[in-house]
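Hi R.,

As promised on Friday, here is the backbone we talked about, encoded as structure tokens. Could you run it through your design pipeline when you get a chance and send me back a sequence?
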């Protein structure tokens, strides 16, 4: 992510519109930017690295299987 702050503001504008104030969006974006850069500085090559993925029922999904499924998905996979 080249601009985590700007990306977060754009996402919040799209997803929430006027449901929260500009000040709240700024606060959220600043916190995300700090969190993102802290994680990257710590050596993680991707913000999702090392995350456990759980289903709504609480089952843990093998990240390798999940990645493979997403890559092969008609809509979510890479073109």
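Update: got your reply. Pasting your designed sequence below so it's all in one thread:
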């Amino acid at each position: 992510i080249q601009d985590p702050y700007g990306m977060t503001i754009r996402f919040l504008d799209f997803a929430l519109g006027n449901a929260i104030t500009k000040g709240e969006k700024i606060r959220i974006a600043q916190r995300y930017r700090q969190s993102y850069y802290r994680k990257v500085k710590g050596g993680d090559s991707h913000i999702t690295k090392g995350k456990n993925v759980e289903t709504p029922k609480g089952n843990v999904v093998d990240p390798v299987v999940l990645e493979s499924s997403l890559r092969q998905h008609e809509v979510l996979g890479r073109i």
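One thing I noticed while checking it: Residues 22-41 form the longest helix (20 residues).

Thanks again,
M.
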